[in-house]
Design goal:
By secondary structure, the chain is an alpha/beta fold. The chain has three domains: about 35 residues, no CATH class; about 120 residues, Enolase-like, N-terminal domain (Enolase-like, domain 1, 2-Layer Sandwich); about 240 residues, Alpha-Beta Barrel (TIM Barrel), CATH 3.20.20.120. It is built from 14 helices and 17 strands. The strands form three sheets. Strands 7, 8, 9, 10, 11, 12, 13, 14, 15 and 16 form a ten-stranded mixed sheet that branches. A four-stranded antiparallel sheet has the order 6-5-4-17, sandwiched between helices. It has a three-stranded antiparallel sheet with strand order 1-2-3, with no helix packed on it. The longest helix is centred in the middle third of the chain and has 19 residues.
Length: about 425
């Protein structure tokens, strides 16, 4: 059958054919599907370092990238900065990876690209929070391109929608609660009145460790949880953020004090590099253990699942290897009846990538949501958070578009 005859048969004759690019309408989304998508090539990279605004949720600066293609489609990616004051090495690393392994590649070849980035340098083939987040940024930008070319949100390309709304939680920091536990109960009432059903708190917040906290200090934390339960009953879930502060014995001890108040989870009771010790804590408490924000790739998550060290997986899409790697991790967690609660301390692009994952993941539990007003202002169509739930973006790719005026206003450097 001749091509024109075929197009007439399906009612699509005279669809635009220019410069070898044939387009068919995507009836489901209202965009177009480029038939020569298999020939699309990545041609350029731009990096942007942006200043955040107080209270600096997501760090003081954001590192966002743009991948350019020979068909004019641009993909957005983001490398979470982790509080690093000097981002020049991270910008240089992304540029080096692009120059060596990405330019000229077809962004549809996600697996091929990921393997090249992760495994081409023999001695660097290892999960890490330096190189793997750079891979994540490039990978999510490729997915953004794929979605824009096909006219589909990424979640449609990874199995389709499972969740219409995404439950979310925010950090809860009642001032003075360690000395006056009633302050936590008073603030909890306000959260419930706003429709919020879950929060996370770390009254100790002492990075580093492990530390040996006194009995008096741990009892104060327990009284904070008690105050919240007395004030709002079961209307508010409370996660306990540990930040790896405890020794194994200390984590087990404080968990026993908190069990009567049914915490939603105990996050990183010990540091994640010793999975056996985290598994020891998990075996000694009824509180679900959460971990994953400092783990990367399927290889590290496989160990934590196999050893039953955590039941709530807090993967960070912007750090752990990207969207497809996150989907694989979520699949492994599903096979272990573990849930996902993605970490969010980043800018709007990595956050949007997490929402795409959540929407198509059957075992999605809850999404962390820490933001400044800039997270909304920088998007032409802001991500909506209402009554404790997020509406996932449904536009092509990551579903977001950046506001160029705001970008220019917050821009520190551009490569």
């Amino acid at each position: 059958m001749r091509r024109r005859q075929f197009l007439n048969t399906i009612g699509l004759s005279t669809i635009g054919v220019t410069s070898g690019l044939s387009l068919l309408p995507n009836l489901g989304v209202g965009h177009t599907l480029a038939l020569n998508r298999q020939k699309i090539k990545v041609t350029g990279l731009k990096t942007m370092v942006l200043d955040n605004i107080p209270p600096y949720a997501g760090q003081r600066q954001w590192l966002i990238i743009q991948l350019e293609t020979d068909q004019g489609v641009i993909g957005l990616g983001e490398r979470p900065t982790g509080g690093t004051p000097n981002l020049k090495p991270h910008v240089s690393l992304i540029q080096d990876l692009f120059d060596r392994y990405i330019v000229g590649e077809n962004p549809f070849d996600i697996e091929r690209i990921w393997q090249k980035l992760y495994a081409s340098i023999h001695d660097y083939r290892h999960p890490g929070l330096y190189a793997t987040p750079a891979i994540s940024a490039i990978e999510m930008a490729c997915w953004d391109i794929i979605g824009k070319v096909t006219g589909q949100p990424v979640f449609n390309l990874l199995g389709g929608r499972v969740h219409d709304q995404l439950r979310a939680y925010r950090y809860f920091e009642p001032a003075g609660a360690m000395d006056r536990p009633e302050a936590a109960g008073e603030e909890a009432i306000k959260l419930v009145e706003q429709g919020i059903t879950c929060c996370k708190m770390d009254p100790l917040y002492k990075l580093g460790g492990p530390y040996d906290f006194s009995l008096e200090t741990m009892r104060k934390v327990a009284r904070i949880f008690e105050s919240i339960r007395k004030s709002v009953g079961d209307k508010l879930e409370i996660g306990f953020g540990g930040h790896g502060q405890f020794s194994t014995a200390g984590a087990i001890r404080i968990a026993s004090m908190l069990e009567p108040y049914d915490p939603y989870f105990f996050e990183e009771p010990v540091h994640p590099e010793n999975v056996d010790e985290m598994a020891r804590v998990a075996a000694h408490t009824n509180i679900p253990i959460a971990s994953g924000e400092r783990l990367v790739t399927k290889f590290e998550f496989s160990e934590i699942l196999q050893k039953q060290a955590a039941q709530i997986i807090q993967l960070d899409v912007g750090q752990c290897g990207g969207i497809l790697e996150s989907k694989k991790i979520a699949g492994m967690a599903e096979a272990h009846y573990a849930m996902t609660a993605p970490h969010m301390f980043c800018g709007p692009v990595a956050f949007a990538a997490a929402l795409q994952l959540n929407t198509c993941s059957p075992n999605f539990l809850i999404q962390e949501y820490n933001y400044t007003d800039l997270h909304s202002e920088i998007l032409l169509d802001p991500i909506r958070y209402e009554n404790g739930f997020i509406s996932p973006p449904t536009g092509p790719g990551l579903g977001i578009e950046l506001n160029e005026k705001v970008i220019q206003r917050q821009l520190v450097s551009k490569g």
